[in-house]
Structure formats: C-alpha cells, structure tokens
Amino acid sequence: MKRYHGKRVFVDSAGVHQGKLDPFMVEVMAEVGVDMSHHHPKTFDGLTDDSFDIIISLSPHAQHKAVDLTRYMHCDVKFWNIFDPSLVEGSRDTKLTAYRQVRDQLRHKILDLFPFPDDPRF
Question: Is the backbone of residue 6 left (phi > 0), alpha (psi -120 to 50) or beta?
C-alpha cells in the first residue's frame, strides 16, 4: 500500500501474535523493489493509532481481533482470506513460489480496492 500510495494515506500493519521478521517475505518484496529488511512486526496492541477508516485482516483470528477492536467505532473491517505462505513445506524454491503468489495476490487486492490516483475508477 505504501509503495502505491506513499504518504497520501496512513498505513500500518499488525498481527495477532508477535512475530519475527520473515526472511522469505523480505526476499520476495526485494524482488519488486520494496525493502522490508527494517520492518518491525508488531501486534494490535503495538499500533500507534487507534483511529482507523478501514482494517483489512488476513486470517480468521485477525478478523475476530479487528471486529473486537472496532466494536465501538465507525470503521470498515474487511477480511481477505489469504493463504499463509509460512505454512508451506518443501524446498526453498517451493516456499519462495508460495510467498510470491501471496505478494501478487495482495498487490491485486490492494490496487482493486485502492486504485492509482490516475485510474479512472479512483
């Protein structure tokens, strides 16, 4: 989202559980020119803001957390049922392929919901 819309929108990410920086994610994002090597995963509790226009969750557990978080505020909550590529077993190439598929799927969903400013749909 930040790559396509820069500072025109405030974007943050969080997970249900505190995670570690995923080297496969860093690698596949670097392939498309996005440096995630300094990203610091955080939980919902670690968010710096509590005013949202939209929350997009990528797992059922995160969806429940988002709904609970926004129970008393006006905020859209969307669920994108995205496969967790960290669950893939196999060779390095097999894992990277799964991560690339998720990266590309997320890109498509982001640009569909938030098109480029010069897009006639915007």
Answer: left
Please report, for residues 3, 26, 36, 87, the alpha-carbon distance to residue 6 in angstroms, rounded to integers and kept in the order given.
6, 19, 15, 30
CB 79 within 8 A of CB 54: no
pTM greater than 0.85 (yes/no): no
Q: What is the DSSP letter of 15?
A: B
Class of the domain covering 2-113? alpha beta
A 10 A CB-CB count for 29 gives 19
Per-position pLDDT tens, the chain of length 122? 888 887 888 888 888 888 889 999 999 999 999 999 998 888 877 777 777 888 899 999 889 988 888 888 888 999 999 999 999 999 999 999 999 999 999 999 999 998 877 755 54
